[in-house]
Amino acid sequence: MGTQNNKVEKRARRKSYLRRKKEAAKTKAAPAKPAATAAA
């Protein structure tokens, strides 16, 4: 079983992963300005 420490790491990893996924979905849905995503 994971320790308390792992719990925090996992949450942070998942948050960043979800954010990346959301960004990808947004760009795929509306590729209006790819320069913005490239910069970010």
List keywords for this structure.
single chain; 40 residues; mainly alpha; 80% helix
How would you explain this protein's 3D organization?
This protein is mainly alpha-helical. It has one domain. The model has no long low-confidence stretch (mean pLDDT 75).
Order of helices and strands: HH
Question: Could you name the ranges where pLDDT drops below 50 across 5 or more consecutive residues?
Answer: none
Number of strands: 0
Can you give the mean pLDDT? Answer: 75
As an assembly, this protein is single chain
Whole-angstrom Rg = 15 Å
Head-to-tail CA distance between termini: 36 Å
Please give the share of residues in helix.
Answer: over 70%
Biggest pleated sheet: none
The secondary structure category is mainly alpha
**Count of individual domains:** 1
Summed up, what is this model?
It contains two helices and no strands. With 40 residues, it is mainly alpha-helical. The longest helix has 26 residues.
Layout of helices and strands:
Layout: H1 4-29, H2 34-39
